[in-house]
Design a protein that fits this description.
By secondary structure, this protein is mostly helical. The chain has four domains: about 230 residues, Alpha Horseshoe (Serine Threonine Protein Phosphatase 5, Tetratricopeptide repeat), CATH 1.25.40.10; about 190 residues, Tetratricopeptide repeat domain (Serine Threonine Protein Phosphatase 5, Tetratricopeptide repeat, Alpha Horseshoe), CATH 1.25.40.10; about 80 residues; about 110 residues. It has 44 helices and two strands. It has a two-stranded antiparallel sheet. Strand 1 and strand 2 form a beta hairpin. Helix 36 packs parallel to helix 38. The protein is elongated. The N terminus is likely disordered. It comes from Luteolibacter yonseiensis. GO terms for molecular function: hydrolase activity, hydrolyzing O-glycosyl compounds. This is Tetratricopeptide repeat protein. One of its GO terms (cellular component) is periplasmic space.
Amino acid sequence: MKFWPLFPLLLLSPVRGQGADAFADHERKGEAALADGLWEMAELHFRNCLAAPGLTPGVKSRIGIRLAESLVREGNPSAALELLEQSFVEKNAEALFWKAQALAGQKRFAEAADLFSHLLENPAAAHRTEAGLTLASLRLALDQPEAALGSLAGLIPGADEKTAARIRLYQVEILLDLGRAAPARAAMPETADITAEDQPLASFLNAQLLLKEDHPAEAEAAFRELLNHADGQTLAHYHAAAIGLADAVAAGGKAEDAAKSLLAFIQDHPGSPLLDTMFGRILQWLPEKPATTDPVLERLALWITPPLLPPISSIATPASGSAVAAWPTYETPSSLTDRLVFSIYARAIGLHRIGTTETKAEAHLLFNRLRIEHPGHFLATRSLYQSARWLLDEGDSEQAFSLLNTLRQTADSTELKGEAAFLEARAAYRKGDPKLAIQLFEEAARSLGAPEARTARLQAAIARLHSGEGGKVHLIQNQNTAPDQELDADLELERALSTTPPAAAAPLLEEFLKRFPDHPRAAEARLAVAEAALSGTAPDVALAKIHLDALEASSEKSAALPPPRLALMRMRMADLTHDSAAAMAQAQAIMDTYPGDPVAAEAAFTLGRNQFQAGSYNDARLVFQKLATTDTDPDRAQAAWLLTARSAALGGTPQSKEEALVCFDKACESKGPLKAIATLEKASFLIDMYRLPEASAFLGKWIKTLPEDDPLQLPAGLLLGEALYAQGSSNESSMVEALAVYDRLLAHARSQPSLLNRLQYLRGTTLEQLPDPKNPGKNREKEAFQAYYSVLETTTPPTEWEYFERCGFGALALLEKAERWQTAISVAQKIASFKGPQAEIAAARARKIKLEQMIFEDD
């Protein structure tokens, strides 16, 4: 089974040893993921299913096919093909269909078409209709439109009316693209046969047909109806309807109104995916010699915001420097929208058409701005080509050649390179350099498609003819004694005083005081009750105050009590009632009055802690450091070293920070309960100081001394991961180590959902930064998505919200980046369904995507 790589997420939900319930859970989740368009999660769950022992051949084959489908749909055809060639999958009835789809995914169109053709010949073949539709698309990609139409025609016999109507609509689309209006009209299905889902498409195609059939008024009405009722339409068709409407208006002889129609639509939809086509139409309908105040050019000017950089004229103009000046090699930060870029380009073209010296100069400046502020936009290369043409027309062939040469070397578009070569060749020929012209015409012929390539070859031949040459052409108590009441009282008091813990002694002491309120040792009992009340994790300040007040009221009875203990109780009361000033004053008084008494150490600790909490870190540090070196209580001494380190760390100077590390080391070296805390805090402090390699080495060495099941593995691992991750920007291997740490911690966090969510978030953010070993040009975003989305695969409300929702929005962002809009909506709605703090934000994201992408569905 060497084919399937081990995914780190298997640590989260292993199948082995969990039996049929785990298998069924993974299969259910896999099928649900397929239905929701979450191909990465489907793949993960089906791989977990295949890892289960004892699968029957039939089950194994079924799961294998679902895995192959997941791989094909997520765009991994190579892995799908390798799987489909394994014996437990290849005989499955669906294997041939998914093999063909995988071949198509590899762009092996001819091989895929051959397999789909075999499926089409078998009426009982799995997914036969889908095979035929895909075959038609492949044949179109192979420039075989007639064969595509034939594939669709072969599906109609035997198909139900609704399916047949959908197939016919596809035929109409193809025929319209071929410009064959009459056969397209004949292929249109009856309205009664068209499903409600397909009706918007049918209406769009009918409007296009009306336009092709030269019925512009009817076409205009049909396109307006589509624009007024957007429900059910795809984003592309809705925006194409706006173009269709403009085309219909133009066909009625109103070109300016047509351009204004598109401009109004662009105003409301500045992010349209069809801006290129729309602006192409606007330029097409712009007069060859527009007026200076042309309304179209005026509208374009309103969309052109002030430049982000200094005036362009101070940087470079095509006529005042080399091609490098017109084609910057750096990219500046830009907030340009596509509409702005298209507006700059179109207005430059229009201004140049006006033809005055001023408008031509402004046109050149607009093109320069476009190239400087947005050099990555395809219009930047197009503007370079256009600038060269203008320069040739203006007689500046040298500068034009420089721009064209730059374009031929830098343009991504092969066709644009060819056009540049052709233009340069023509200019070279006119300058009397036939040899250069021949070379450039042949270069153009290799880049252009027919018939332009033929024209270039012809020009090369003509140039040869005139030069006398020939021609050639080439890409995570005892009972027995009498009762003695005084002895009974003494015994009861001693019994109470010796009871542990203090919380258990308090009720016994109170009972003693009720029975013997005038006992000579009542004051001692009251003091003990007060001390017991203030001990433990839940001090009873009110009870302690009652007894201390009683002692104050009968000072003659409490005179025999140890003064240090009374002073200590007063200090504790002040401390616990948050009277910091009184607590510190009483602590200092105890230290000054009883320096050799054990209470002085507790007073010092209280003084230092209050100073620390008040932000007097240097004063606190002096108190804690003296206590740490003199206290005979090792646990308190260790705590003092730790607090000395914290105080020094917050001292603010580089020297105090270095001294903090020495104090952390002393706390770590001390024997006491705070060793682990001191170690973790030192590591965290090293990270805060950005001494990341030192933090990584320190934590790594300590973690190796911890047992595998030690609870400290989690906090230590999280800190180690943080230190490693922070080094990732300059050391990719450090990021890989961070991921390995997070993967290992998953097993420790399996019973702690909140930590699990945090780990998956950390894994996701790390994976997003790492290149895919199989494709270094891409990052491991699929695995990042699997990490993020895994926390959403729950049917119970989360135990924490922060990392749960961070994961959800991380998954959502990746889907939006990939433009998987329908799946993004589903994930956003799922985040919202948990009704957490960010639920409304998620719901709003879903609504926004629906609106922007024209996705309509029943809510």
